[in-house]
Structure formats: structure tokens, C-alpha cells
Amino acid sequence: MPAASARTPGFTSIPTASATSSPAPGPDRGPRLQKGVRALAIASAQLLLIAAGLVVVGWVLGQLWPVLLPVILGLLFATVLWPPTRLLRQVGTPPALAAIVVLLAFLAVIVGLFSWIVPQVADQAGELADAATAGLEDLQGWVTGPPLNLGEDQIGQAVDQVINTIQGNAQNIAGYALTGATAVGGLLLNLVLALVLVFFFLKDGPRWLPWLAAQTGPKVAPHVAALSYKTWSTLSEFIRQQALVGFIDAFFIGLGLWILGVPLVLPLAVLTFFGAFIPIIGAFVAGFFAVIVALVSNGWQTALIVLVIVLVVQQVEGNVLQPILQGRGLNLHAAVVILAVTLGGSLYGILGTFLGVPVAALIAVVYRYLRDELDGRTPEVADDGTRVQVTGDETGATVVRERVTSPGHRDAPEDDGGDPAADDGPPRPAG
């Protein structure tokens, strides 16, 4: 029979269920599955090692945070003070003298600003106190009248209850006060250390790049120099953008206070400007003081208008202006800026919200640099066709710029003395 002739000798076919649409397993399915599982296991192990490495790095940075914080603050201050220092150095001023002059001028501006604000506050403090007393009396009269009709005894009992609550929690309140005083003391100490470091950054900063690049090899030195310039440019851009945001907040809120006739306009505007450098809390505190002053001096109607002005300006600044400005200046998407602020605040509180954006921008700079390097785009070459290289001998190292005309060809190096002050400015972040 034809059907029997097609069978393999020695085997008998057994009837089974009808065939399905699924293909029969091939002989390579098992080895391929094993290969895929092996690749997945290797990738998982690599990810676990990377995650463990990040955890260790985060723990080490957390342990070194008391040392890193003054360094970070010093670098941020140095980005503001370096342009006038560079100008003084270019006209022949010795580095140490230029750093001292600029740092003392910076401190003089801060001290003069507060010396200008404090007398205005002192002059109008008496009027505000009298207005506050009258406001409390009006509040007491409104509470005792219709529709509440609370008696003097009820008000006295409420005041006594508040006093008893405060006395019962005196130990906790004292602990909170001590913690706050300790935090303020630590902040002042970090500021003092940061100012000391600013002097050395301004004085010896240009020597840092040759020293750092000299610790590497000739192949790595151009990348170290390029990344140093790009990160410095990113930090400078962050400070400029934050100052612009603070100025816009202070201008519009101060303008609203001036139109409404609220006293202490200039002190409140200055407080708003500096509050912009402390995200969320700074804006909240500045707005709170503006509303309180308006309430005490001009009544609740003006205070309500001031509250609306503060909320509108801060919402526009926080949700529209700041993400757009920082996104363009730092080459970050607005969503990345918002996520960086949120993540930084959830991990490290107020300071994390302040440092979240520049840290994200620095990570983006390093990522784009590595991406361009992997794509063969030579990111270490500046826009003018030069790249930094280290030369010298055992007596010392210096930074020179060599012009790159084509791959594998170099022109004669141009010595810049290892001083960024000789440059027109660091290149903008790549990408």
C-alpha cells in the first residue's frame, strides 16, 4: 500500500489528534534558548554590578558630603566671580591680588545691600507694629461680634489652651529650635569655608586643568580638558539662568507691591531675588513675608491681591519660565528639569532641589560627550578647530592648544600658558 511504503521500517504510526497551526519544535530551539538565557543572565549580572557600584559611590559621597558641600558652593560662587577676576588678571594684576579684590568687593556688595535694607526695615518696624496691634484689636472685635458672638471668656480660654499646648511641648520645641540653630550654624560654617575655597579657586583655578590633565596620558588629556571646560560652562550657565529667574520674580512682585502701596517694597524684592536660589522654600518664605506685610499695613483685601500676584508669578516662573530658560541654557528638556528638581528634593531636601538641575546638566554633558566620542565626532576638538594638550617635562606641565586640520595631522601647538583667562571663553555644552 502507498501509505505503508512511506513509513519508516520498524516503526508503527499511532493515530493522534488533529494537527495544530503551531510549528513543530526545531532542533535548534533548545540551544538558542540556552544562549538567550545565558545572555540575559550576563546582562542582569552586569546591571546588578552597575547598581551596586552606584550605591557604593552614593554612600561614599554621602560620607564625604560635609567636605563636598563647601567645595560645591565655592565652585558656584567662583563661576560668578571669575569674569571680573579674569579681567583683572588680563590687565596685569597678580592672581592673588585679583582674587582678594574681587572677593572683598563681593562681600562689600552683600554687606552694603543688607546695610541698606536693615535701616528701611527699622524705620517702618514701628508703624508695622502699630498696624499689627490695631489689626489684632479689629480681629478680636470681629470675633466677639456677630455672627460668631464669642465672649471674652471663650477667647481667653482659647488663648490659655494654646499657651498650655506650647508649654506641654516645650521640650520638643526646644529640640526643634536647637536643631534649627545647629543647621544654621552648619550653613554659616559651610559658607565661610566656601568663601575661603573661592579665594583659592580664583587664585589657582587656571593651574587646576594642567595639573589634572598631567595626571593622565597624552590620549586622555584632551578629553579631560574638554570635559572640564564644558562642565565649567554648564555651571556658569546655571547661575546666570537662576539669577535671571530671581530677577524676574523680584521685579514683577516688587512692581505689584509698589502699585498697591505696600511698604518695604525694596527689601521684599531683594528677599524674593535671593529666595529664587533656594527653590520652593525660598519662594514660599518670600511670598509669605510679602502677604503678611500687606495684611498688616493695608488690610486683608490688599493682602489677598498680593497673594494672587505672588502665586501667579511663582507658578509662571516655576512651571513655564524656569524650565524653558534652564532647558535652553543647559540644553535640557523642560520635563527633565522638573524631574531633576523633584528627584533632588525627594532625596536631599531643599539643597537637593537647588543642586538637582546642575547635577542633571553635568550628567547630560558627560553623556553627550561619550555619545559623540563613540560616534567618532571628536568632541574634544573645540569650535575653532583646536584641542587642548599637555606638554612639559619633570619641572612642570603646561597646557597648549594644537590645531587639528584633518584626522592624523596636527599643526604647531599654540601655548596658552595653561590659563583659561587667555581664551575667549569655554565652549558651550555639546549636543
Automatic annotation (TrEMBL):
Q: Which InterPro entries match?
A: AI-2E-like
Give the subcellular location.
Cell membrane
Q: Which GO terms of the cellular component aspect does the record hold?
A: plasma membrane
Keywords of this protein's UniProt record, alphabetized?
Cell membrane, Membrane, Transmembrane, Transmembrane helix, Transport
* Renumbered residue ranges of the record's region Disordered: 1-30, 392-431
Question: Which portions of the chain have biased composition (kind: Low complexity)?
Answer: 12-23
GO term, biological process aspect, one: transmembrane transport
Membrane-spanning regions, if any?
Answer: 39-61, 67-84, 96-118, 173-202, 243-266, 272-296, 303-322, 334-367
Going by the entry's taxonomy, the superkingdom of the source organism is recorded as Bacteria
Membrane protein topology class: Multi-pass membrane protein
For bias type Acidic residues, the affected ranges are: 413-422
Which family does the UniProt entry place this protein in? Belongs to the autoinducer-2 exporter (AI-2E) (TC 2.A.86) family.
This protein is called Predicted PurR-regulated permease PerM
What species is this protein from?
A: Geodermatophilus pulveris
